[in-house]
């Protein structure tokens, strides 16, 4: 009997061919109390390095302008958190994990491991959906692993050539709690002019957690005791985005809408199943999406789950 385990490997080689960055995955889960460790390796061809050293950097940054706006020395990108390690000459020796072992076997000789711990309080990867006519990279938060050749890890006087770098975008993604709580309930009573009786409305959901693409059943009960026709009651799913990195900007956008009618002196009782998805919201500029990797699709941004302090 034979068993075969194939581990997908992501790699990127620098323009000079001297650096090849290897990662075993590109999604790292925020479990609230901790974040998955980033383990990788870099394969080196040192013949043209001279006295230069090799560093690996993990940076979390917020982009709030497209590339074509980077004029007059202005950069519309703010580093939120950044960490460097030197791997050659070797000074960073992480405890080897099973991921390291897999990557070291894949990359072969002259390969150096590295590890990063992502702080728990950093935001998850998110991008703001551009408008139909917007060009360049989308605004949002991204995480990038970069390995590069330099005399010093971050000297402002040293210009690092693009061909001396290799980089991969990774994602910090939100953990979905395994425990699902009871769903919310709400009720209102509304009166109308020229009618002595009101309209009662009740709405309830089965649970408080839903996954991407999962239908959300909403139980609606309306007792229209008035002599008026309820021409419209509307169900909407709203996404609220709160941006605090460069300004106190908070806005809400509807990602699903459905309308119904109730006749006078009648009742309405139904369970409406709704599914908000990105495919129905492609034209809405500024909608928050889960961080996107190149050539891969994404979802409406997951709800941010905060740690209890």
TrEMBL record:
Q: Which InterPro entries match?
A: Arrestin, Arrestin-like_C, Arrestin-like_N, Arrestin_C-like, Arrestin_CS, Arrestin_N, Ig_E-set
GO BP, one annotated term? visual perception
Q: Does the keyword Thylakoid apply?
A: no
Pfam families of this UniProt entry? Answer: Arrestin_C (PF02752), Arrestin_N (PF00339)
One Gene Ontology term of the molecular function aspect: G protein-coupled receptor binding
Q: Which residues form the signal peptide?
A: none
Sorted alphabetically, the keyword list is: Sensory transduction, Vision
Domain annotation Arrestin C-terminal-like: ranges:
195-298
Q: Does the keyword Zinc apply?
A: no
SMART domains assigned: Arrestin_C (SM01017)
Instruction: Write out the function statement from the record.
Output: May play a role in an as yet undefined retina-specific signal transduction. Could bind to photoactivated-phosphorylated red/green opsins.
Task: Give the family from UniProt.
Answer: Belongs to the arrestin family.
This protein's name: Arrestin-C
Annotated organism of origin: Sparus aurata
